Amino acid sequence: MSINNEILNCIHERRSTRRFTDKQISSEQLDALLDAAIWAPSGGNSQSWLFTAIQKREVLLHLNELVREGFQHWIPDDDYPGKQAIKEHSQKEGYNFYREAPTLIIASNRPNYENAMADCAMALQNIFLAAQSLGLGSCYNNQLHWLRDDPGVRAYLLELGIPKEHTICSSASIGFIGAESTAPIRKEGTIHIIR
Ligand SMILES: Cc1cc2nc3c(=O)[nH]c(=O)nc-3n(C[C@H](O)[C@H](O)[C@H](O)COP(=O)(O)O)c2cc1C
User: How far is the CA of 11 from the centre of ligand 1 (A)?
Assistant: First the structure.
């Protein structure tokens, strides 16, 4: 790239982190990430999202157990790569859907809103880039989205304050980087310019 600036560098350097250290992020860092989330664009300026940050280890571990239970009777409904493998992997000893990150941010949104996923994805990318700028690692997790209608998972998310009518869009693992990830090569032929 011939043009260089802090944001472009941040975009290039961000990676999905899949191993974190145990060290918790600071309150200031969490505030900055959540603030970055709510400044994302949203369809019709809806801002109907909810970002629920969990930093309590017992809560995260319990949620992980419910995810493992949920996967037992979950049937992958399309051929998204890896769904079946993740379902099987989830039953193995030591499976942890949030990669044992010390902080998990769950993005949910109001129901029957066609931009629910798009708005939350915009916000999550803000979180990821903000995390990168603060020297933190992050990773997108699909599992809570896949299990959004699982009764056990939903009952617990309701207990945690996520409205029962909300759709669960995604979650983000956040923490200090325990192992660096390598950058996947960019595929050819994904840019088309008409001048
Ligand atoms: C919609 C979406 C879903 C994803 N789901 C997961 C996931 O469930 N678990 C995971 O480890 N990574 C997940 N990722 C991260 C991708 O695997 C990752 O972005 C991709 O391999 C490229 O690597 P990079 O983020 O380091 O550039 C997801 C990313 C997106 C955009």
Answer: 14
